């Protein structure tokens, strides 16, 4: 028992050091040369205690890019829609845990070990800032295009395009799609968000497994 206790204590120290280092060491290490953008796009990072999403401002070009959402019944073409919200995560945890009261052991174990991934897509109207669970960032048009490419490439595709997960949604305004990549304790929803933000020209921590570490690194380096 003493050996087990020492092992667990050492493991906690290693994890704490990894999270701290991953937060405080920026990625990329050096900021890009500053340039005056011709135009900017304002994106949002939405967070809860364990998960982050990216909210993309909606316009005709974005509507055309993600036209398959409307084909699947997600009402992205409604005039009151201002943002499309994208998140990547573990298939079992995402689909089987719509609320905390429905938390089960098997999805948690898959999330900690290895699981397939899905994309969750939702729509939103006006989102007011500032709020503790929302962070906004201005990016250039070319970085916005790169971010859209990254998000689009996260969808797994079949012969007819992105693969909708049937009968899987939290409400009538959202849906799930099969995604590329596998989910585990090291590569999770928040590391996907961090990669997307770096694609958008922002700096994150080197490894951000938690929303709090991602949020802190974003405040430090952007």
TrEMBL record:
InterPro entries: CHP02117
Superkingdom of this protein's organism: Bacteria
NCBIfam families named in the record: chp_urease_rgn
Name this protein carries in UniProt: TIGR02117 family protein
Organism: Mesorhizobium ciceri
């Amino acid at each position: 028992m003493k050996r087990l206790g020492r092992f667990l204590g050492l493991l906690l120290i290693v994890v704490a050091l990894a999270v701290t280092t991953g937060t405080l060491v920026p990625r990329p290490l050096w900021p890009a040369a500053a340039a005056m953008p011709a135009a900017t796009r304002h994106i949002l990072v939405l967070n809860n205690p364990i998960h982050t999403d990216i909210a993309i401002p909606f316009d005709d070009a974005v509507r055309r890019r993600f036209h398959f959402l409307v084909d699947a019944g997600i009402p992205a073409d409604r005039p009151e829609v201002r943002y499309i919200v994208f998140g990547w995560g573990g298939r079992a945890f995402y689909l089987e845990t719509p609320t905390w009261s429905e938390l089960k052991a098997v999805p948690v174990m898959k999330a900690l070990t290895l699981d397939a991934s899905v994309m969750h897509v939702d729509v939103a109207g006006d989102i007011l800032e500032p709020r503790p669970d929302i962070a906004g960032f201005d990016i250039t048009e070319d970085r916005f295009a790169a971010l859209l490419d990254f998000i689009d490439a996260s969808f797994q595709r079949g012969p007819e395009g992105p693969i909708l997960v049937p009968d899987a949604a939290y409400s009538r305004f959202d849906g799930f799609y099969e995604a590329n990549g596998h989910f585990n304790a090291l590569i999770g929803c928040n590391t996907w968000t961090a990669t997307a933000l770096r694609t958008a020209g922002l700096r994150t921590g080197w490894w951000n497994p938690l929303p709090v570490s991602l949020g802190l690194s974003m405040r430090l380096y952007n």
